[in-house]
Amino acid sequence: MVIIFASPSCRKAEIQPAKTLECQLEDASVYQVNPKSKGFTEILDAYVAKGIPGIVLLVKDDNGFYIGSAGMADIDKGIKMQPCHISKIASITKFMLGVAILRLQEKEVLSLDDPISKYLTETTLKHIKNGEEAITIRNLMNHTSGFYDVIEDQGFYLQVLNDPAKHWEAEDLLNYVYDEPAMFPFAPEDTAAYSNTNYVLLSMIIEKATGKSHSRILHEEVIDELGLQDTYYFYHDELPEGRVAQGYYDLYNNGTIVNLSNWNTGSGNGYGGIYSTVWDMYLFADALFVKHTLLNEISLGQMLQFHHTVESRKHLGVACFKDFIDIGEPRDYAWGHRGRDLSYSADLFYFPNHNAIMALMVNYGTDGDSFLKPVFLEMRDEIAKLIVAPE
Q1: How confident is the model over 271-295, as pLDDT tens digits?
Q2: Do 296 and 106 contact (CB within 8 A), yes or no?
Q3: Residue 45: inside a domain, yes or no?
Q4: For the chain, what is the radius of gyration of the CA atoms?
Q5: Which residues span the domain enclosing 41?
Q6: pTM, two decimal places
Q7: At 248, which CATH number?
């Protein structure tokens, strides 16, 4: 795709207003056979009533599918949210990119134990605190590097405010990381903490190791490999007109949500940018955790090595979380990834002891604090508790 840069005032919005879609996922009875369907629908309706603009949920377990939606995909246009609407799934991008890297390891293109200095220049690493430590690809993937998180930088967000639709390059983002303090001294056995910077660097490593763009590798190893028809990596892929749900956030902290669909917080640089549907999200999780067609057992085992640190009610693994660790019995945990962005949120998880997949999309941002963030967090817990509840 040829990208034409223009000033925000004259640049055409890349996410156009949503339209009503012809969606087979709404009408086919096979997607409502799960005996908990009524309960899931009641949860969605209740949380739309509490203020969440729009929700799509897919649950698949041994009893079959539930696929439902509630609320609005486009408030201004009066377009209802449908299961076929595409939404930004934010940091679930890391989950998919991590699988791509593990597949590259299986092909002996790289190794998780490679030092990152093999792929990144000395100039880059000397300006990143901890960058001169013996950090490996694995340390980036499981967030044990201690690298300063670009997303937490106030200067970065000021630039987003000044140019919301900017297409960011990796070096643009690293300028907000250079010479900033590390999150913690590098001690991977002792400390882990989530940093988006790790995945900016992983996108650069992929390109050095393969000689291809990381977007191309993400397509070859995951999106195209699985035939995901409704999954796009923005800004590298053009988004389909009328199919993307609008994204909202309480930007002014006054209880009023505004449309920030076209505000870009660095999409397309490894840590965010995937737009998808709950169906494509399900196909990815099913291939990874149920059918085992994406990774071999050794690679999957590496992905599921979790750090002992508990961060935001989860354990960090290799491009994967062990989440929902406190919703009920110890066996009720799930593997997968959260997605949190300025105006979109998502969850994709597999509950191994219940053989259940949950794909959840919400067109409201929960990366920052707002009156709806605790509402969203409460909702995701209710959904998970219903998934693991006995019949």
Answers
A1: 999 999 999 999 999 999 999 999 9
A2: yes
A3: yes
A4: 20
A5: 28-54+63-70
A6: 0.96
A7: 3.40.710.10
